[in-house]
């Protein structure tokens, strides 16, 4: 449990719920034992909703994902490329359409050719998650290093994934001008083998940063089935907060419709067809030429489609996931 991130949330919950700190801490501890994590506790507003029926309606990582694995199995081969950005790049290169290198296997010559084409680029850790260990750099940031020295430096510090920046569709930039505002497309494979997309989420930066992860200054919202924003954006970091408009530009979010949305969903369904995994979250960027897949994972955060301000009938979406997978998760 990350106390630096937890303390501001507890203080906010104390102000909103009027519950004593001890009551909140005991409740958090009980929820931890019951396999709710602290992000879920605050994203689902458990501090103000203590009903068992309410809490058990939510999809939660440690309560439900092990059941999916137990009932449907897991592909060890796929775990390798979903858990490693370099392996993912090689396996799904035809869905990505951007220049990317894995310096663990790509040569100095390939790296020099990449730098000739791209003055700015992202560097990433192969196994980083949640936007951690990701940063945007320019070649001039390393002006005193030769290509070979920079190649060795990035390998030494564990930032072996190097990618060209994505130029997103100008319409999508209206949501946030500083970040690539990704779609998180969730694909589910039913027990009968059919694939569906039960949830689609939009993620943006609301702080002027280059990343759209909630833990890195981003916010998110569940989309309508046609790619339209119908809820205010939500974040749980550093406190739970709702955004009806971009705080930096004033752009009003509701009513925005993603270009190439159907193509984005279809692209993820096509990618999922080559996977045995039953539950995948795909990160998609939308450019003027269409969508491209950035990365994916098999334990996508369920808080993204169950923020407390984005619920139907004030209930979580466990039934929808059970229906999509064709299994009970209780």
Summarize the structure.
The protein is 33% helix and 19% strand.
Describe the structure in your own words:
There is one protein chain. Helix content is 33%, strand content 19%. The chain is of the alpha+beta class. It folds into three domains: 56 residues, no CATH class; 174 residues, D-amino Acid Aminotransferase, Chain A, domain 1 (2-Layer Sandwich), CATH 3.30.470; 65 residues, 2-Layer Sandwich (Dna Ligase, domain 1), CATH 3.30.1490. The strands form three sheets. A five-stranded antiparallel β-sheet has the order 7-6-5-10-11, with helices on both faces. The chain has a four-stranded antiparallel β-sheet with strand order 1-4-2-3, with helices on both faces. Strand 10 and strand 11 form a beta hairpin. The two termini are 25 Å apart.
Topology overview:
Elements: H1 3-17, H2 21-33, H3 38-43, H4 52-55, H5 61-72, H6 76-82, H7 85-91, E1 100-102, H8 108-117, E2 120-124, E3 134-138, H9 147-156, E4 161-163, H10 170-173, E5 183-189, E6 195-205, E7 218-222, E8 233-235, E9 241-243, H11 261-273, E10 279-287, E11 290-297, H12 318-325
Antiparallel strand pairs: 1-4, 2-3, 2-4, 5-6, 5-10, 6-7, 8-9, 10-11
> What is the terminal separation in angstroms?
25 Å
Please work out how many helical segments DSSP would assign. 12
Poorly predicted segments: none
What is the global morphology?
A: globular
In CATH, the topology of the largest domain is named D-amino Acid Aminotransferase, Chain A, domain 1
